[in-house]
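Pasting as-is:
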Amino acid sequence: MEIAPGIHRIKCKFGDKRMVYVHLLVGEAASMLVDTGCAHNPQQEILPYMQRIGFDPARLTYIVISHSDTDHQGGNAPMKQAAPQALLACHTLDRPWVEDTDALIQGRYAQFEQDHGVGYGDEGKTGIRAGCFSYPLDLTLTGGEHFRLGADWVVEAVHTPGHTWGHLAIYDPRSRTLIAGEASIWNAILADDWEPAMPPTYCYVDTYLATQDRLLAMEIDLLSSAHWPLQQGPDVAAFVSESRNYCLLVERKLLDFARATSGFTLREAIEQVGPTLGRWPAAANQDFSYGMAGNLESLTKRGLLRAERNRAGWIEWRLV
């Protein structure tokens, strides 16, 4: 649906109950698709939506990937096949994982295996490969770039790190709309029925909190994110503030857990603290590895916790 003049929000489905919203910006001079969903989403939803509104993919100027994740970059190859003239771009920091599915799996989805024994296994990785058809990029961004879509319409790429190092949002000052991706992740990632599907997957806490502060300082009337309902007016600040406050709540819970134990692993924190922080399906609890590892790294750098390896070889944290 068109959520602001020239800005279309396209619902794409994947898995049993999951969805991701991608965005199409159509101006008289240029156009932009923000994210491509999973490998099946271009044929299943994105291209049919373009056809319904009378937009020819041959007119597509830019494809901007907000960040390196299967459900945001998985349709890159099919979209480039449908719109070969479109320039494919992402932030330079996310480029290695956006261009190469195996690098994405190893660097992002398998990052907790060696030190923490937490991962998706061979079956999970096979599923990721099946849903992520990567493609070489045409250019990279650093944030601050402006794209002229019409005579009086210029949008800006905003660097909003935290979920990934190179996460990008697209800001339209004309309608004060922010296409936010997962710059702000609230207290859960939601399913198609708006029920919690999994824990929030912020990763890099210090930059994530800085991003929330930046968003709170921006003039945003409409926040359109990847897995949440549209936020308008005062609800924008409430959504972003909850994202910030929830990250700090996880930090406090982890410190309380450290005080109650003589040491704990990431898996133990996920299994024992995770269920106290939300009501997503139990099977999704391990996805708290991203957020909790980020909190634990931040607490360790600040000298509140110390990390060392236990006899089993896993990293373990305890109070300083």
